[in-house]
Model the fold of this input.
Amino acid sequence: MPVAKPESSDSRVIAHVDMDCFYVQVEQRKQPQLRGLPTAVVQYNEWKGGALIAVSYEARKFGVKRSMRGEEAKEVCPQVQLVQVPVARGKADLSGYRNAGSEVVSILARRGRCERASIDEVYLDLTDAAEMMLADNPPQGMETIDEEALKSHILGLNNEDGSDVKENVRKWIHRHNADHRDKLLACGILIVAELRMQVLKETEFTCSAGIAHNKMLAKLASGMNKPAQQTVVPFSSVKGLLDTLPIRKMKQLGGKLGISLQMDMGVNTVGDLLQFPEEKLQERYGINTGTWLWNIARGISGEEVEGRLLPKSHGSGKTFPGPRALKTVPAVQHWLNQLCEELSERLCSDLDQNKRIAHTLTLHARAYKSSYTDSQKKFPSKSCPLRYGTAKIQEDAFNLFQAGLREYIGFYGGKTQGSHCSGWGITSLSVSASKIVPIPSGTCSIAKYFQGQSTSHFSSMQSSDNLNTEATLSLPSGSECYSEVNLSEPKIDFPKEESWIKDTVPDLDLQEQKDLSSTLSEKTQDGFIQEDISPLLLSGCLEQNRSKQQQDLTKDESQFKSEYKERKGKRLKDKGTYSIIELFKSYNPNPSGSFLSHEYNRTVGGTDASSSSYSRDEEEGRREAWGYNIDEIDSSVMEELPTEIQDEIKSWMQPHKRRPNNMVQRSCTISHYFSPSKKS
Ligand code: DCP
Done:
C-alpha cells in the first residue's frame, strides 16, 4: 500500500554545499603562485608520480583525471603542477584539509541547521531563514538582486530563446504570482549566494551548491554546475530531472541495488521506477527499501538535516597496493600502530576541543589469499569498545586484527615460513572510532565518567586481559612464523572474544566510499552494527599528556598535589570537562559512601561483579581525608560545575573566607557536595 507523501517536506529549503576540487584549493591557498594553473594533488607515494586525488578545473580541461597517476597527467598536460599530500607517520596527513573544511563549516552554519556530511560537503536547512526573509524583506520586492544569485541555474527555466539568462533568473526571483514553495526557494537562492560569497571572502575557497526542497535533490543539484555555481530545483522541475537521471547516479544506487534494478527490473533511469507499484518494489527489495525506491522516483525524501558540525567518526587508514601488500604479522602491527597513534591523537583533540568521546573501535582490512578456494572471502571487519590511550588502542586494534585474520584464513590457512607468511596479504588497513557522543556537562559528566570507568573499564580490561593471556591462535603445525610471532604478541582467547569483539557490518554510503579511497581519508563511518555500547573509557586520553593515570588513583595526597601542579602548568589549553576530569580522575576524594560509589550504586544497583571489584581496588589506595589548595582550581573548570558549587568555590576565593593555609575545609569540599547525605 502506498505510503502517504510527506507533503510538508515540499516547503523546506535545503542546500547542499560542495567545495570545488577541495584539496587543490587548500594547496593553492598555501602556495598562491599555483592559482589559475592546472594543478593536481597526488598521493605521497611517488610510484609513477603518485595517484591523483584532486584535480583543478584548469587541469581537467586538458583531460587530467583523478584516476590517473602523476606521470600520466604529465603526458596529457605537461605543465600540470603536482603537489604532494602532506605526510606524517609514513602516510597521508589530512589534518590540513580537515581544518580547512571546518573553517568553511563554521561560516555556512551561520544561517541555519548545518550538517557536515564529509570533509568538504555540508547540508543546510535554510527553511527558517527563508521564511524570515519572506516575511521581512521578500525578494519579490527587492530592487537589486546580488550578481552571484543572478548566476544561479534554475532547472526548468527556459533559457533557450536567446534571452538574457540573468534577466530570466531575476524575473523568476521577482515573480509575485509564484507559489509559496518557489518564493521560499527564491530566498534560498539569495541566502546561499551570500553564504558562498562569505566563504570565498573569509577562506579564499570557492564552492558549489544545490538548492531544493530536500537533501536528495539538493545533493543531486550541487554537482550539476561546477565550479563556483549554484543550481536550483523548483518543485515543478523535479519530475523532469528524475525522468532521465541514470539510476546509478542516485545516492545509494551506485552499487549492488542499482545493478539489480538495472539487470532484474530493467530500470535505467530514476523515472523508469515510476511504472512499479510500491507493493511490487517492496516484494522485490523488502518493505523499507521498496518504499524508499517508490519515494525517490517521485523526488520524495523526508530525511532531515542533522545539526552536526563535527564528524560522526574518526578514521585512519592506509592502502598497500600490489607489491606493497603486508605479508607478515609484524608488518601489519607496525602500520596498525601508526594508524592508531593518529586516531588516538584525533580522539584526544576531539575530547579536548569538543568534549566528545567515542565508544567503538573498528578495524577494517582488505586482504587477498592466493591459494585457497574461498579467495573471494572478505576480511571481516571487527569492533570492540574503545579504550582511550594510544597503547590501549594499539593493543585492541591488533587483537581485532588477529581475530579477523584467524577468521579470514580459516583453520588451515596462513601457512608461514620464517618471517614471511605465505598465502595472504593485506592491501588496506584502517581503524576508526565511532559512536561519538558529547560528554554531558557538569555533575553528570563527572559522575558518568567515573561510573563508566569503574564499570566498563574493568569489564573491558578483563576481556582484554583474557585476550592477551589465555589462549593462542590455533594454527596448523608447521606455522613457525605465527608461533614465533605469538611469543611476543597478544594471543587470542576466542571464547571470551565472542562477547567482546564484534563483527562489524559497515554501512558506507557513496561519500564514505569516496573517503575510503586512495588516501583513506576522513572516513565518516557510521551505522556499524554494534549493540554492545561500552560506557566511557577515557582514561588513556589523559595518558597522552601524562603517562601514569592508573596509579594516580592510589597516590597519596602530597603526590597528587605536586603532580597536579606540574600538570596544570603544562596544560594551559585544557578547559572545561577535560580539566575537571583530570582533576577528579587524579584523585578521588571519597573514601566511602562517596559520590562515585553513590552514583555507581544508584545506577547499576551494585549488583555487577565489577562494582565490587572497582570499590575494592580503588578504595584500597584511598585516604580518609582530602583537602586541596583552592589556588590550584583551574578557573576553566568552574563552568563545568553546578552553580551551587561554583558559588561555594567563589566564596572560598574571597580572602576572608580562606583558612590560613589556603586549604579548603573538608566539610566544604566538592566531595561533600556530592555525598549522599548532602544530596538527600
Ligand atoms: N578525495 C580523495 N580520494 C578520492 C576522492 C576524493 O582523497 N578518491 C579527496 C580529495 C578531494 C576531496 O576528497 O579534493 C573532495 O572530493 P570530491 O569528490 O568532492 O572532489 P573534489 O572536491 O576534488 O572535486 P569536485 O569539485 O569535483 O567536487
Notes: The chain has a mean pLDDT of 73. The pocket of 2'-deoxycytidine-5'-triphosphate is lined by residues 18-23, 53-54, 119-120, 226-227, 514, 517-519, 521 (CB under 6 Å).
